[in-house]
């Protein structure tokens, strides 16, 4: 994360709070109050974590560019994960099939197995250069039945702004690497990158409590499900479907898929 002094962060938080209040005018009063509380609560954490992004980048630079590496040694759950995601996409019925975006794509596991078979072209966002290079190889096999790999944006999500209109923007197991401020900003930018009728889908670990849990090893956080609900609505989305991934090992965090459309 680029360095900011305390006054800059305070000013940014005040601006974010103002926008939060404006954009929650159509949210029930209790939820709107929670949204403001969420935004207010992150000021201190952002000031205390100036190395948040650098530490995560270093961690992933040491991870093998394999499916097992992407899944933290749990490569055997990949097929179950893709099956659950396929079912979810069938349920929400994305109208367009032209262009999709895979955010935090890693080596392109989701792009290759979920998105490319469904869309004519799939762009990916991945900040690690080794993963991005592997994705180009992994997602350009001759056996792909439908689509192809498009652009690879080698940048972190905190700095990424869509320049196209996507029928589907998919983000999985990456949002825990964004600070709260950058997460809301990312949601707002994504909203502007959707084609008419397009969906934004997130698939993330969530805590079993109402607390945010820090992981110092990979410099990430795991948020409560309600936290995502509030921030998505604050950023101008309405949630149209929310489903828990089934058949994962019981000792893992619950994993939820949330499909959204702009308000």
Automatic annotation (TrEMBL):
Name of the top EC class for this enzyme: transferase
Catalytic reaction annotation: N-terminal L-alanyl-L-prolyl-L-lysyl-[protein] + 3 S-adenosyl-L-methionine = N-terminal N,N,N-trimethyl-L-alanyl-L-prolyl-L-lysyl-[protein] + 3 S-adenosyl-L-homocysteine + 3 H(+); N-terminal L-seryl-L-prolyl-L-lysyl-[protein] + 3 S-adenosyl-L-methionine = N-terminal N,N,N-trimethyl-L-seryl-L-prolyl-L-lysyl-[protein] + 3 S-adenosyl-L-homocysteine + 3 H(+); N-terminal L-prolyl-L-prolyl-L-lysyl-[protein] + 2 S-adenosyl-L-methionine = N-terminal N,N-dimethyl-L-prolyl-L-prolyl-L-lysyl-[protein] + 2 S-adenosyl-L-homocysteine + 2 H(+)
Binding site for S-adenosyl-L-methionine: 104, 109, 157-158, 172
Keyword Acetylation assigned: no
Naturally occurring in which organism (per UniProt): Drosophila guanche (Fruit fly)
TM segment ranges: none
Keywords: Methyltransferase, S-adenosyl-L-methionine, Transferase
PANTHER family per UniProt: AD-003 - RELATED, ALPHA N-TERMINAL PROTEIN METHYLTRANSFERASE 1
GO BP of this protein: methylation
Record EC number: 2.1.1.244
Taxonomy, superkingdom: Eukaryota
Record-given protein name: Alpha N-terminal protein methyltransferase 1
Cross-referenced InterPro entries: MeTrfase_NTM1, SAM-dependent_MTases_sf
Annotated family: Belongs to the methyltransferase superfamily. NTM1 family.
Pfam families: Methyltransf_PK (PF05891)
């Amino acid at each position: 994360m680029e360095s900011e002094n305390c006054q800059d962060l305070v000013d940014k938080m005040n601006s974010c709070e103002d926008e939060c209040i404006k954009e929650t005018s159509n949210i029930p009063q209790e939820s709107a109050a929670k949204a403001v509380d969420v935004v207010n609560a992150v000021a201190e954490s952002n000031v205390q974590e100036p190395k948040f992004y650098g530490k995560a980048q270093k961690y992933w630079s040491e991870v093998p560019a394999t499916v097992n590496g992407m899944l933290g040694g749990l490569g055997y759950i990949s097929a179950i994960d893709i099956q659950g995601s396929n079912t979810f996409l069938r349920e929400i019925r994305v109208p367009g099939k032209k262009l999709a975006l895979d955010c935090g794509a890693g080596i392109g596991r989701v792009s290759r197995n979920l998105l490319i078979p469904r869309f004519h072209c799939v762009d990916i966002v991945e900040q690690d250069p080794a993963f991005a290079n592997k994705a180009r190889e992994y997602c350009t096999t001759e056996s792909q039945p439908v689509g192809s790999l498009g652009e690879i944006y080698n940048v972190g999500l905190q700095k990424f702004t869509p320049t196209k209109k996507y029928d589907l923007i998919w983000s999985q197991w990456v949002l825990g690497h964004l600070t709260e401020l950058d997460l809301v900003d990312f949601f707002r930018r994504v909203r502007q990158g959707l084609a008419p009728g397009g969906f934004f889908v997130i698939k993330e670990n969530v805590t079993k409590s109402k607390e945010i849990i820090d992981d110092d090893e990979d410099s990430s956080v795991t948020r409560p499900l309600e936290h995502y609900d509030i921030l998505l609505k604050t950023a101008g989305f309405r949630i149209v479907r929310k489903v828990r991934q089934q058949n994962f090992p019981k000792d893992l965090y619950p994993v939820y898929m949330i499909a959204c459309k702009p308000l």
